[in-house]
TrEMBL record:
Keyword Cytoplasm attributed: no
PROSITE patterns in alphabetical order: PROKAR_LIPOPROTEIN (PS51257)
A Pfam match: NMT1_3
Record's protein name: TAXI family TRAP transporter solute-binding subunit
Signal peptide feature range: 1-20
Top-level division of the source organism's lineage: Bacteria
Keywords assigned: Signal
Length: 318
């Protein structure tokens, strides 16, 4: 058993489980999501209820510790499917960054990217910050220690010639970052999440913000080095006071599946995901981002054979 098994078992025991279909029918798929107040959990539950109501599959939805924990749960054989960030998925498959110490995990494959998790770099205009280069020497929160957000921040700052030693680095969650910003304790913070993000929405009710662009050439360089990134434009007006579009990068919330799941099951799940987009969108706003072309772009690991079969039929893969 791989290193960290006791931590994994603790996550399993702490999880909340919901059967997201009417009765037990056909194949039961254990789906790991995230915290039960987060988007992963609500999205996974919506998808499980809708697909489970139409296919010969039922879903056991588990509340977990999100991306890294979900990959470890698949590796331990405790779940069959999970929602993860595609950058963390890449780190696991290649044994880098978040998985440098534990080593590569290759017992899973991609099924479909489903919605954007946007790298939002929020800065205080009164601190004289108008670009990412201006973050040098400032107090900046880069997300929780060891999180995917921290690695996004490191990669982007590096592209601008800035190291963590060049800033007063703080490791704070999104809500704690917003509170520190309100109190004048930090000048800027990174948040990788669907836009709009609740912590930022709350922040703009009392404070002015700017969201920093990532320059086109820098974005191109980052995407060449880290193929899980895609360009994303945050529309003007998403946040009060930020009226112009902001060009940044995004990673993707992605369904992954165990390699042990059979091809027919994964094909059926993938097909049902897109055939039921309207119902999923009615149940969860993130459903509107579903598309076959989006689902395969920026995916840096192999697709499961069942998913690959569907995307080839749909013309999204050759």
């Amino acid at each position: 058993m791989k290193k960290g098994f006791m931590k994994i078992m603790g996550l399993i025991l702490a999880s909340t489980t919901v059967l997201a279909a009417c009765g037990n029918k056909g194949t039961v798929v254990k789906l790991a999501t995230g915290g039960n107040t987060g988007t992963y959990y609500s999205y996974g539950t919506a998808v499980g209820q809708i697909i489970g109501g139409k296919e010969d599959i039922s879903f056991n939805i588990q509340s977990t510790g999100a991306s890294k924990a979900n990959i470890q749960l698949i590796d331990a054989g405790e779940v069959d499917m999970a929602i993860v960030q595609n950058d963390v998925m890449d780190y696991a498959y290649n044994g880098t960054d978040l998985f440098m110490e534990d080593g590569a995990v290759t017992g899973f494959s991609a099924m479909a990217a489903v919605y954007a998790e946007v790298v939002q770099i929020v800065a205080n205009p009164s601190s004289g910050i108008t670009s990412i280069a201006d973050l040098k020497g400032k107090s900046v929160s880069v997300g929780d220690a060891g999180s995917g957000v921290e690695f996004n921040a490191k990669q982007i700052l590096d592209a601008y010639g800035i190291t963590f030693e060049d800033i007063n680095k703080q490791n704070l969650s999104f809500s704690a970052s917003a509170d520190a910003y309100k109190d004048g304790k930090i000048d800027a913070f990174f948040a990788t999440a669907g836009a709009p993000t609740n912590a930022i929405m709350d922040l703009v009710t009392s404070k002015d913000i700017t969201i920093l662009d990532i320059d086109d050439e820098v974005a191109k360089t980052l995407m060449e080095s880290y193929p899980f990134y895609t360009v994303y434009d945050i529309p003007g007006g998403t946040y009060t006071g930020v009226e112009e579009d902001v060009t940044t990068l995004a990673v993707k919330a992605t369904f992954i599946v165990s390699n042990d799941l059979d091809e027919d099951t994964v094909y059926s799940m993938t097909k049902a995901l897109f055939e039921n987009k309207d119902e999923i969108t009615s149940a969860h706003a993130k459903g509107k981002e579903l598309s076959e072309a989006y689902a395969v772009d920026g995916i840096s690991i192999p697709f499961h054979k069942g998913a690959e079969k569907y995307f080839k039929e749909a013309g999204a893969l050759k």
